[in-house]
Amino acid sequence: MGIKGGFCLWQQVWYICRSDRSKSARCDQSRSTHKNAANDMAPTESHDVEILDTVIEHVRLPDAKFKPFMAIVGLLRSIPIVFTAFFLTPSVVYAQDPVEWTPATLERLRDWVARAPVDALPVLDTGPLRQAQTRGDAEAVSQAATALALNLARMQLLGAAGAAQRAGWHIADTDRAVDLRERLARAVSLDALDSFFSGLQPQSDQYAALRLAYAGEADPDRRLTLARNMERWRWMPQSLGSDYVLVNAAAFEAELWRHGRRVGTWPVIVGKRSTPTPVFSATITGVILNPWWVVPASIVREKHGVFPARLGYVRSGGQIRQKPGPGNALGQMKLDMPNPFTVYIHDTPSKELFAKEVRAFSHGCIRIGDALGFATRLLDGERDRVEVDAIVATRETTRLPLEKGLPVYIAYFTAGTGADGQLRFYPDLYKRDGRTGDPTSGGDACKG
C-alpha cells in the first residue's frame, strides 16, 4: 500500500469514527434520562470498540497487503479512547503547515540563538539554516529555521539538561503540555519572536536575580553555580500559581506566597545527608493538629524496635505508633500533603535544632519552625491562633481542611535571593550540583 493510499485509508477511518461518535452522542443523550443509578454503575462495553467495529464494517480491504492495517485495528480495539484518538487524528497523519519565515524573522531568530549564553544556555548550531539559505531552498529554510527555533524554545521553557541530570527531580512540570510549534507559527506570522522567546523564560523573581548576577559574575565557580540554579528554575513550572508554599532544602527555608507575594519565611530542618529530603511537588489539603506518628519501618529497624511506652509508643496491627502530645516526633502539627515519598512538613519537639546554621537532622521530612503560627497562616482566616491553640490543648487529633488545595514545592536551589533581596549561595548539602552539570555545555558553537 502506497503512502497516498495509506493516508486516504486513515482519512476514511477518521470520517467514519467522527460520524459514528456524533450519532452515538445523540442516542446517548436521548437515553440518559432513562438510566438509573444501578445502570450507571454497571460495566459497559467501551464505545471505542463500537467505533472500530464500524470501521471494520465500512472499510473494505480487498487483499492480503492490508492485513497489517487490520492487525492495527484489532489492537486498537483494546486501547482506551485517548490513545485511539491520537492515532485517528488527521493532524497526526498529515504534516503540519510550514512556518512562513521572512528575512526579518530569520534575523531575529539568529539574534536569539546568539544571545542564549545570557541565560546560561548553549549556543545552537545555525549551520543547517545558513546552508539552506545559501542554496535558496525555501522549504529547507523553513524546516531548518523551525527546528532551530523549537530547540531554543524547548531549552528556554524546559531546560537544556538530559534525563540523567534531572534524576531525582520530581516536581511536575506542566509546561511540557505547551504546544510550542503552534505558538511559534503564530509568533512568526505576527513578527513577534521577541515576545515568544522572552515569554518562555521562567517568570520567577528568583530567576531574574540569578540571571542578573550571572551576567556580572567573574568567578568561574560562582558563575557555574548560578548557571545550574537558573537551569533548575527551568525545570520548575513557569507559573507556580499565586498561592503556594516553596521549600528550599539547601537554604533550610520555607516560604508562603499569597496573591503573588511572599508573606512569610520560616526556618526548616531537612533530611540528613544519608536520608536526604527528596525534590517533589504535592498539594496541601489540610492541617492535622495533635497528629499520631506511625513509625516508618526503616526507623524501626534503625532503632532495633526499641520504642518505650513511657514516650507514648503503642503497638497495634503490626505497627508502632506514637500518641499525640508535645513529645510526639511530629510535634503538634502535620500538614496533610499526600505524596509517594511519605515526606511531610510538620512540627518537632526538638526546637533547639533551629538555632543551628546547617539544619540537616531528619529522615527526610521537613520540620518547620513556629509550626502552629505557620499552620494558622495556611488556614488563611478560617481559624485564628486562639482557636488553633485551643484545639492543640485538647490533645485530640483534629484535621482542619483547607478551603482550597495549596501547591507545595519541595525544591533544591544552591543560590538565590533571601527575603531581603540579597543574593546568597548555599552549601550543596546533598552534592546535587555536580549531577546538574554545566547547562552551557553540550551545544555546538554558532557558526555564523
TrEMBL record:
Top-level taxon in the UniProt lineage: Bacteria
Active site: 346, 365
Biological classification of the source: Bacteria, Pseudomonadati, Pseudomonadota, Alphaproteobacteria, Sphingomonadales
PANTHER family the UniProt entry points to: BLR7131 PROTEIN, L,D-TRANSPEPTIDASE HI_1667-RELATED
This protein's record includes keyword Cell wall biogenesis/degradation: yes
A Pfam family hit: YkuD
Originating species: Novosphingobium mathurense
Keywords: Cell shape, Cell wall biogenesis/degradation, Peptidoglycan synthesis, Transferase
TM helices/strands, residue ranges: none
Gene3D superfamilies: L,D-transpeptidase catalytic domain-like (2.40.440.10)
GO MF annotations, alphabetized: carboxypeptidase activity; transferase activity
Limits of the L,D-TPase catalytic domain: 243-389
Protein name from the UniProt record: L,D-transpeptidase catalytic domain
GO terms (BP aspect): cell wall organization; peptidoglycan biosynthetic process; regulation of cell shape
Similarity comment: family membership: Belongs to the YkuD family.
UniProt pathway: Cell wall biogenesis; peptidoglycan biosynthesis
SUPFAM superfamilies: L,D-transpeptidase catalytic domain-like
